[in-house]
Specification:
mainly alpha; globular; membrane; Gly_transporter; transmembrane
Length: 206
């Protein structure tokens, strides 16, 4: 059973890497970047948050140990460049939805890895948030845009909710798989609702 869970988490991690890389590709395509720009945005979006997380918890960055992640990024970048050349324009919500799905996967995986290194639940939630948002922040800054996490959109809040749902479910005695499902569904529901209903947090001003 443990091996099954480990393989599932690994598969989801690779899938999340591809989804986040794709969001980087879509951003680069929107800005009409060249192939190098596409690969750079895909890479920082996909592995930026996980790299920061690993350095903070004292782990060797995951993509150095397993270069499969780099191949997934390169493959996604190549496929994404082909898709963006199709004459049909992608709907406006393609990038936000791809980002939301990657967010749900990475927050859970980030929190799970932090817990495996003996952190507290609170730290695990923080590591989940960093895993989910840091790569996108780097992507947006390279694209000269204000990162979503710094805007009034419900973005980091959704990550925090997802992390709390995951660690809270484990504390209640639920297994890893139900906890992951609850967290991902909760985060996705909140983020997608915010995207389509334009929900936002109140802003602070002097």
């Amino acid at each position: 059973m443990n091996n099954l869970i480990e393989h599932l988490i690994y598969g989801l991690d690779l899938f999340g890497t591809a989804i986040f890389a794709l969001s980087g590709v879509l951003m680069a395509g929107r800005l009409r970047m060249d192939a190098i720009g596409v690969i750079v945005l895909a890479a920082v979006t996909a592995i930026g948050g996980g790299t920061i997380r690993d350095l903070l918890i004292g782990a060797r960055p995951f993509w150095i140990q397993n270069t499969t992640y780099l191949w997934v990024i390169l493959g996604t970048a190549g496929l994404g460049m082909l898709l963006t050349r199709l004459p049909k324009r992608l709907p406006w919500y393609t990038l936000p939805l791809a980002d939301a799905l990657g967010l749900a996967l990475f927050v859970v995986i980030g929190a799970q890895k932090a817990l495996s290194f003996g952190t507290s639940n609170m730290v695990a939630v923080v590591m989940g948030v960093i895993t989910g948002v840091a790569g996108g922040m780097i992507r947006d800054m390279l694209a000269r845009e204000v990162p979503l996490v710094l805007q009034k959109e419900i973005y980091a809040t959704a990550c925090i909710v997802g992390g709390i749902l995951y660690t809270g479910s484990l504390e209640l005695g639920l297994g890893a798989l139900p906890a992951m499902l609850i967290s991902m569904v909760g985060l996705l529901a909140l983020r997608i609702t915010a995207i389509f209903r334009h929900l936002s947090l109140p802003t602070f001003s002097l």
